[in-house]
Amino acid sequence: MPVPILRLALPSPLRRLFDYRAPANTPLTALQPGVRVRVPFGRRQMIGVLVALAEHSDVPKEKLRDALELLDEASPIPPKLFEFCLWVANYYQHSQGDTLSWALPVLLRQGEPASTRQQHVWLLTKDGHPDDPRLERAPRQRQALKIIAQHPAGLPHQLIGKLQISKSSLDALQDKGLLRRETRRITATRHHGSWLLEAELPLNPQQQAAYEAVRAGQGRFHPCLLAGVTGSGKTEVYLQLIHRVLEAGKQALVLIPEINLGPQTLARFERRFNARIALLHSNLTDRERLDIWLAARDGEADIVIGTRSALFTPMKSLGLIIVDEEHDASYKQQDGLRYQARDLAVVRARQEELPVLLGSATPSLESLHNAHIGRYTLLKIGQRAGNAQPPKFLRLDVKSRPLDSGISRPLQQAIAQTLQAGQQVLVFLNRRGFAPVLLCHDCGWIGVCPRCDSRMTLHQRLHELRCHHCGHVERPPTNCPQCHQVDLRPIGAGTERAEARLARLFPEYPVLRIDRDSTARKGSMERLLITVKRGEPCILVGTQMLAKGHHFPRVTLVTILDADSGLFSADFRASERMAQLVVQVAGRAGRAEEPGKVIIQTHCAEHPLLVQLTEQGYFAFAEQALAERRATNLPPFSHLALLRAEAHKPGQAEAFLEQACLEAQQLCRLNASWGHIELLGPVPSPMERRAGRYRAQLLLQAQARAPLHRLLAAWLPQVEQLPGSRNVRWSLDVDPMDLY
Ligand code: ADP
Ligand code: ZN
Ligand code: ZN
Q1: What is the pLDDT of residues 37-93, one digit of tens each?
Q2: How crowded is the C-beta side of 51, counted as CA atoms within 13 Å?
Q3: Residue 417: in which H helix or E strand, if any?
Q4: How far is the CA of 452 from the centre of ligand 3 (A)?
Q5: What is 44-99 written as a DSSP string?
Q6: Residue nearest (by alpha carbon) to ligand 1 atom 5
Q7: Ligand nearest to the CA of 468
Q8: To pair with 694 at 20 to 30 A between CA atoms, which of 66, 359, 613, 734?
Q9: Collapsing DSSP states into helix, strand and coil, what is residue 689?
Q10: Which ligand is nearest to the CA of 470?
């Protein structure tokens, strides 16, 4: 029998498989899709994943190489997840090898065994005693033995370093027969008995209806969109649904937008459940990440919580997927494999025949559209749980009113009143730093980034000009670099400036700034929030970080300093994002018994979208925004893919895209039956130069998904081969979130 050919996905951006001869004497039964194979690649070695077997290869015999070894007896990735990964690669036109690399924990990519976790522990032997006379001259060994003696169940090896026990001491003690090492399989066990640690709240009728609607779909594909205003008790519905999943002996996967919310979510789940709950967060070591992956795969974790990449966690018997705050932009990965985890959650649920619940107070227009056309079941919770009142909105027209660091006079008065009443104020401004522009009053010079087509933001406290696009940093000049005068003025306001001004205006109250700069250090967010939680009057100033997940029951006034940028942006999603932010920030207020007020400063108080949003709420806004999208034929009423390119020299990226465009035109001409696809561009990107590279883009738009994907599948292999591709960095973004 001829040796079979292994068709492998290797970690490479190339959209193809690589052929190798199976290692000699490999039984056919060992060659299951998904097993990892070590192979020679050039002068290096690589670890690939077996995708298929073939009898023949197009690679000439003399060039075909032997695979070195199989690393697994069976596929470490469950077959369904493996299939899912291949589907993802195909949908996003990403290489299978790279996609599998995304899906696999780092250690598995590096060849670590994919078997259940083991732990080494140190124990004293029968003869082991710290008073052993042989240790008289070895104080460090004696000290080590003393410490280990305090752990009669065994001291886990990973604590050795922390306890300042050296490897050489351990070796010496082992040689003397005083110490031994044991290898144990780690299994998380659950205390038997009820899954609940605390009582469930009785659901109100709307919660109950949502709960039952999701339950009705158990055991089959059943996508639901839970649109419930902030504080309406969505999380309570999740928890009760998960309870049923656990009772059925199954697992739940919960996606959250931001890892900052992880500890809070975890705490709430741990209060509720006697269950093995794993949180996938960015501070895990590779080992910890692999351990959670294996535990979930082997059914030793009941609930897995994590951000978008957690969607690729293998689960032995998944019963439900929940995507919280499904509208959040962080579900879209913006580099490498540009996937949208919320959309993929639905795909995974379809494949594994499960209910999937997307929840949000401000659902994305895509998901709402899917609900309208009957693809998702729409579940609404219109009122807040308990007695909490919805906030009242006020549009404050600031046309021709002086703004003092972005804050108008009437707003100052409202803030003063709230503080005097002993309540808290939240000031929202989605711009970090002191001022977005530094301007010379004498000659008009502006501080721009030397590497980007953008202005640099002044960070006064750090005494820096920073580019928020490429990270370039410089000292602000004392004299204008152009005219040498000294009248350099910060224009506009960011959170730092608003904070400074508010602190001057209200010296008797604490002003707390919460943004990426002020919370960069670990634990700083928690420290800042302690004051807020104490409930004394204070002012919170911050960016969208404040809009996510936190409960500020004592905040009764929310102010939005600038809603206008969301109304007049070139980005067609800007108004949707603005509306979501406004509603989410507003949702932080008055969550307990005190009703909240939301004041929005704007120069266009009569803008129809803003009027709709503030007077009739998010869903009325969304209907209007969807009608606009339909009229302009934008997603979700059409489908987009964006080919981006960047290069060191001007013109190179566009030239490459020009070639790519010609190929696409030709494919469309030859395959007219595919359906119509619009090719728009290539054009320079809205910010043409970024981080020293010149960027351009080509947009593809189609009425239906199928023609677009047929074209992409035929086109990308050609694009890869284009001569111009050597001087550019390029990428394809299917369903792009922004067109930059
Ligand atoms: P969401 O996830 O929609 O923001 P939560 O589930 O966090 O809402 O609920 C908001 C608050 O209301 C929480 O303090 C929660 O304990 C409370 N709550 C939720 N459901 C109920 C209910 N049925 N009865 C009373 N209080 C509830
Ligand atoms: Zn000047
Ligand atoms: Zn820059």
Answers
A1: 999 999 999 999 999 999 888 889 888 999 999 999 999 999 999 999 999 999 999
A2: 22
A3: helix 409-420
A4: 4
A5: EEEEEEEEEEES--SS-GGG-EE--EE--SS-SS-HHHHHHHHHHHHHTT--HHHH
A6: 233
A7: 3
A8: 734
A9: strand
A10: 3
